[in-house]
Amino acid sequence: MTLSSTFYSSQDSFLVAVDCIILGFKENEISLLVHKREMEPAKGGMSLMGGFLQNDESLNQAATRVLTNLTGLENIFMEQVGTYGEIDRDPGERVISVCYYALIDLSSYDDTLLKKHNAFWVNINSAAELIFDHPQMVDDAITILRRKASMQPIGFNLLPEKFTLTQLQALYEAIYDHSMDKRNFRKKMLSMGFLQKTDEIDKSGSKKGAFYYQFKEDRNELLNTSYAF
Amino acid sequence: MTLSSTFYSSQDSFLVAVDCIILGFKENEISLLVHKREMEPAKGGMSLMGGFLQNDESLNQAATRVLTNLTGLENIFMEQVGTYGEIDRDPGERVISVCYYALIDLSSYDDTLLKKHNAFWVNINSAAELIFDHPQMVDDAITILRRKASMQPIGFNLLPEKFTLTQLQALYEAIYDHSMDKRNFRKKMLSMGFLQKTDEIDKSGSKKGAFYYQFKEDRNELLNTSYAF
DNA sequence: TCAAAAGTGTTCGTTTTACACCCATGT
DNA sequence: ACATGGGTGTAAAACGAACACTTTTGA
Q: H or E stretch including A62?
C-alpha cells in the first residue's frame, strides 16, 4: 500500500475473517457443519468454517466463497450474524471476524467434498465445544434464526423443494426445540398463504402417504407479516 | 508486524471503522447526530460519526470511544447494527465499517461539545442525505430499533429518568411513525409491569399536570416477554 | 388385523382493536 | 368560561392454546 493512494494514512489495519455457521436439517435435528482446524493455534480443535477477507472481494463475497469452496453449493440463503472484535478472541493473532449463517438443504447433498476439508456435521447442541468465541456466534445465529423463522418463511431453505407438512413441523420443532400441536401447526401454516399443495404424495414416511407441499412463487409478498411460534 | 509474531501471514489486512448512529428524541421526533466531514473524500458531506479501530481496543470499546469523545456521555445503550464491507463503499480507500446505534436522553444534554466536532442533530428522515452507505446503515438501525423496542423496554434510553405517559407515547409514535390510541397504549404499557408511577407531577405539558413514571429496577426480569406495537 | 402416520374442528381464554367522554387547571 | 391536555372502560374481533378421533395402507 503506497501512501499516495491512501486517504486514511497511519491508521491501524486488521485481518478480517468471515466465519460461516452452516446449518442443515438432518434426522429431525439441526446440524452444524464444522471442521478440525488445520493450523495453529488450536490445531485440531473444532471450528466453524472460515477464511480471511481478501482485497478483491466484499464481505458477502468472501462468505459466499468460503461456503462454496467447502460445500460446492451456490445460491444459498446467507445472512450476517454479527462481528466479533475482542482483542484476544483469536489467541494466534488479532482477527476481526464477521460471522454469517447459511441454511442448506441436505436432502440430496453429496458430502464427498466435505471430507477434503476435514469437515463434518455435528448436532447444534455440540456447538459449545467449538474453539474461541465460535460458541457465542452459534448462539447468536440461533437466536436470529428463531426470530426470523417466526416472521418470514426462511426455514424452508433447510428443506427440499417439496416436503410434507409433517417434515415442515419437524423442522420447526427442531428450530425452536419444543414440540408443537399438529392441528394448530397445520392450521397456522396453511393460513399464512405461502404453501402450495401439490398432487404428489410422499410414501416414504408412512403407509398412508402424505401430500407434498411447496412454496408459492410469490412468497416475497408475504415478508412483512409477522408470525410467532 | 513481524513475521515471527504472526500465525496468519500473508493475508490481506484492512482498515476497520466504527460508525455510530446516535439517536435522540427531540420535539417528538427521532433525531440523528451527524457531522460535516472534515476530510477527503466527501469533505463537507453529511456523515455519521465514526472512527478507526485501533490495535489496543475491541470493537465495542472503539464504538464507545467514538460516542464518548463526541458527546461526553458514558454508559450509553449501544448495540451493533451490522458490518458493511463492499469494496467501494468508501471511495477514499477500502474500509470495513462496523456500525453501532446508540440511544441517548437529550432532555438535559448540553451540546456545546458537539459544536467542536461540527456535529448537529437532524431529523431521522434526513438520513437519506448522508454520504456513502450511511443511509443504509440508518435504515438497518431503525429496523432493529423497531423490532427491539417492541420486545424489550429499550426505548426508555431515549427518555429522561422520569417521564409522563404522554411523553412515552409520543416516543413510541416517533419510533414507529404512526399514531396510537391513547387508551390502548396506556393499558398495554401499564400491563407490561415495568412502569412505576411516582407521586410527582409534570406541569410543563398541561394545566392539569401529568404523573411522572419511571422504570422499575427489576426490569431485567421482563426481557423475555414479547410485546408488539 | 393392526400398527403407524396423515389428516381434520371446536371450544375457551387472551389479546388487540375501535371508540367518546369527563376532569383539572391556568389563563 | 373556555381551551388544553390528562385520564378512563367496554364491546367485538382476532388470535393462540388445548384437546381426540377417523382414515389409509403396508406388512
A: helix A59-71
Whether A72 contacts A114, CB under 8 Å: no
Residues B207 and B116 grouped into a single domain: no
pLDDT tens by residue, chain B, 229 residues: 433 457 887 999 999 999 999 999 999 999 999 999 988 899 999 999 999 999 999 999 999 999 999 999 999 999 999 999 999 999 999 999 999 999 999 998 998 999 999 999 999 999 999 999 999 999 999 999 999 999 889 999 999 999 999 999 999 999 999 999 999 999 999 999 999 999 999 999 999 999 999 998 654 444 444 444 4
- Measuring alpha carbon to C1', the residue closest to nucleotide D9 is B183
Domain enclosing residue B181, as ranges: 155-222
Domain end, chosen from A104, A129, A149, is at A149
Distance in Å from C19's C1' to B196's CA comes to 28
Whether the model pTM is above 0.90: yes
Q: How far apart are CA A110 and CA A180, in angstroms?
A: 31
| Spatial distance from the CA of A181 to the C1' of D18 (Å) | 9
